[in-house]
Design brief:
The chain is of the alpha/beta class and 273 residues long. It has helices at residues 8-15, 19-25, 33-41, 59-70, 80-86, 129-142, 159-165, 179-188, 227-230, 250-265, and strands spanning 27-31, 46-51, 74-77, 95-100, 118-123, 146-149, 174-176, 193-197, 203-204, 213-218, 235-238. It folds into 2 domains: 8-100, Ribosomal protein L30/S12 (60s Ribosomal Protein L30, Chain: A, 2-Layer Sandwich); 106-265, 3-Layer(aba) Sandwich (Alpha/beta knot), CATH 3.40.1280.10.
């Protein structure tokens, strides 16, 4: 058991709290029973399980360790003090996982399934990792086929984003794209409807008829959708609001529109009378 917070392995795990080290290593840290369990359920590439035996008291947690041993995954035991130094949870549950990031290759994206209704989501320059994690969770819930992260977006493998995703970091296909690659995708799908969002749009997001293949474009928290992306859109939609505030939280606004598309794709009708 490692007890020192200065141990090189402990220092490396702690370094993954920083984007630089996550980018260099291609790894990230998953903490807590639910997220580690989801990592196993999703067949994530787990390189190491980190435990603090004194804190790992649940039967489920012990079963995850047994599963790791069965899969011949390395087990690293830490003292409570050493584990606390890598933990972000206020009350650590005594288990974490070192996993490989799973950025998808654009060449693996299936754009030719004519028998399935699809939602694609592209977000430009999202800055808040908590917002991104919440968006990931909604993507999982609404069956989004792919999340495209455009330039200057925050890291989905940031610990705050991973926690907020509630496991969707493992289930939602994530692609890091530049604008040219996004344009390539829009050209590849003839029947793709590209929908942008703006508080100044005339079209109500709840009355617009979304196509079977819809790409929803969301702009940054501060600037909204850039002119470059707005020019790609076939339609701009807005969420109607009657209060004094002129905008919604990015993750909330994204979730509202994703669910409207989801509802229409699944034949759930809204009464607009």
């Amino acid at each position: 058991m490692i007890t020192s917070t200065s141990n090189p392995q402990v220092k490396f795990l702690r370094s993954l709290h920083l984007a630089k080290h996550r980018s260099e290593s291609g790894l990230f840290l998953v903490e807590g029973l639910k997220l580690v369990g989801q990592a196993f359920d999703s067949n994530a590439e787990i390189q190491q399980i980190i435990i603090s035996p004194e804190w790992l008291i649940s039967d489920y947690g012990k079963s995850l360790v047994d599963l790791a041993i069965k899969k011949q995954i390395d087990i690293l035991e830490l003292s409570t003090n050493a584990f606390e130094s890598i933990a972000r949870k206020d009350k650590p549950q005594g288990i974490a996982a070192l996993a490989k990031q799973n950025w998808r290759d654009i060449n693996t994206l299936n754009l030719n399934d004519e028998n399935q209704k699809r939602i694609y989501l592209a977000i430009e320059a999202i800055q808040n990792p908590g917002n991104l994690g919440t968006v990931l969770r909604t993507c999982d819930a609404t069956g989004v086929s792919a999340l495209f992260l455009l330039p200057n977006s925050t890291d989905p493998y940031d610990p705050v984003a991973v926690k907020a995703s509630m496991g969707a970091i493992f289930t939602t296909p994530i692609f890091k794209l530049d604008y040219a690659q996004l344009a390539q995708i829009t050209r590849a799908l003839d029947d793709l409807s590209i929908i942008g969002t703006s508080d100044k749009a005339e079209q109500n997001a709840f009355t617009y008829p979304y196509s079977d293949n819809t790409l929803l474009l969301i702009g940054s928290e501060r600037e909204g959708l850039s002119a470059q992306l707005s020019a790609l859109c076939h339609e701009m939609v807005r969420i109607p609001m009657i209060g004094a505030c002129d905008s919604l939280n990015l993750s909330m606004a994204t979730g509202i529109i994703l669910y409207e598309i989801f509802n229409q794709h699944n034949g759930i009708k809204r009464n607009h009378d």
